[in-house]
Structure formats: structure tokens, C-alpha cells
Write a structure and sequence with these properties.
- By secondary structure, the chain is an alpha+beta fold.
- It contains 3 helices and 12 strands; from the N terminus they run βαββββαββββαβββ.
Length: 208
């Protein structure tokens, strides 16, 4: 099965700022998701329809500075923005191996978890790089295994409609995406940008 969109990563300098920004845009308040122990981050979530959600992610001031870069560039983020997307597959190891054989290494496969505020431990497996190429347009890969998908019990902020990217070197991005077997419409643009269209109660918006 080809990897498909799992969720969008919205990076913020702090979690409260990111949550307030998304609530203003979507008209629905996100819920806190918990801490990523060892990664130095924490998050909040809001649903975007069946099988898709938005993750607001920020540095966690309650954790020590990690030895590796925090994911999605949150170490240096100044303003909340759509930083990346994450692609889901039930065949993570197979996709990683085939991608490596085709010239792109998706990164180390890591077992990760977070504990929700209600005490529930959420586990997943992810292939992620400390130095991801593509300026946020090339997704890390995730496999939830037996864990129920987070979108199942989230407040819904709207319906995901589509995702596209812009980049000064679109052919370079397409060349990386090809071994991953993921689909993303990438066009030429003056700066790297990921744009998600979401249908909300107030009408469609573009999240950037």
C-alpha cells in the first residue's frame, strides 16, 4: 500500500500560541495530546476528518534540551506555520527498505510514544531523519500498528480537502518523493511552502 497523508505538523514557538492560532483559524479549540519524552516536544491535536488530523507541535519547557534536533524545525521556529506532513503506511519496514534501494534513506526507524492527559499511552513507529531534506515537503513515515488512529476521538476542526507544495526546485523534491511512493503536487514557487486546504464551518481556508 502506498503511504498516504496521516497528519499535518503545525510548528509553533510555544504550544499556547499555536493552539490559539489554530482555534482562531478553524473556530474549534484543539486538545492537548501530551509530551514526546526524549524528543523535547509536546503537542495538541484537532481532527480534519476520518483518518486525518492536525498536530500543533512546540518545544516542551518541562523537558531538558534533547541531544538531537527537535522534529519539524521547532528549535528555531519564530511564527506558527505548517511545517511538514506525515505519511502513513502499514508496511513501514518494506517502504523504508525499498526507498533506500531507490536512493533515498527515510531515516532511522524509531519506536515512539506519548502519554495523553487522561493517562492513556499512545505508541507508534516512525521513520524520521535528524536532517530531513525538502524544506518540509518530504514527509517522515509513520505506522500506528495496533494503536487506534488519533483522529477517531478528536474534536473536528473541519474537513481536509487537499495538500500541495511550492518550492524553488520542484524537480528536486519530486525526485526525493518518488522512492517514498508518496503523492504530493509540487509546483515552482519563490520559497518552500506547504499549503493545506481545509473546509471549515466558516468556509474553506488555506493553512500555510
Amino acid at each position: 500500500m502506498k503511504p498516504e497523508l496521516d497528519h499535518l505538523a503545525y510548528a509553533a514557538p510555544d504550544l499556547d500560541t499555536g493552539m490559539k492560532t489554530i482555534e482562531k483559524l478553524l473556530g474549534v479549540a484543539p486538545v492537548r495530546g501530551g509530551q514526546h519524552q526524549g524528543l523535547g516536544t509536546h503537542n495538541a491535536l484537532i481532527g480534519l476528518g476520518t483518518g486525518v488530523y492536525l498536530e500543533i507541535i512546540a518545544p516542551d519547557p518541562e523537558q531538558p534540551t534533547p541531544t538531537r534536533p527537535r522534529p519539524f524545525g521547532v528549535d528555531s521556529v519564530q511564527e506558527p506555520h505548517l511545517a511538514s506532513w506525515i505519511a502513513r503506511t502499514s508496511e513501514l519496514y518494506e517502504i523504508v527498505e525499498s526507498s533506500r534501494a531507490s536512493g533515498y534513506d527515510p531515516g532511522e526507524i524509531r519506536s515512539l510514544s506519548r502519554r495523553r492527559p487522561d493517562g492513556t499511552l499512545v505508541r507508534w513507529t516512525m521513520a524520521i531523519r535528524d536532517d530531513p531534506p525538502g524544506d518540509g515537503l518530504v514527509p517522515p513515515l509513520i505506522d500506528w500498528g495496533d494503536t487506534p488512529h488519533p483522529s477517531a476521538d478528536l474534536p473536528q476542526g473541519g474537513m481536509f480537502v487537499g495538500l500541495r507544495g511550492e518550492h524553488p526546485l520542484p524537480d528536486d523534491i519530486r525526485q526525493i518523493l518518488r522512492p517514498l511512493q508518496v503523492d504530493l503536487d509540487v509546483s515552482a514557487g519563490p520559497a518552500p511552502m506547504l499549503i493545506a486546504t481545509i473546509e471549515t464551518a466558516q468556509g474553506p481556508i488555506e493553512l500555510r
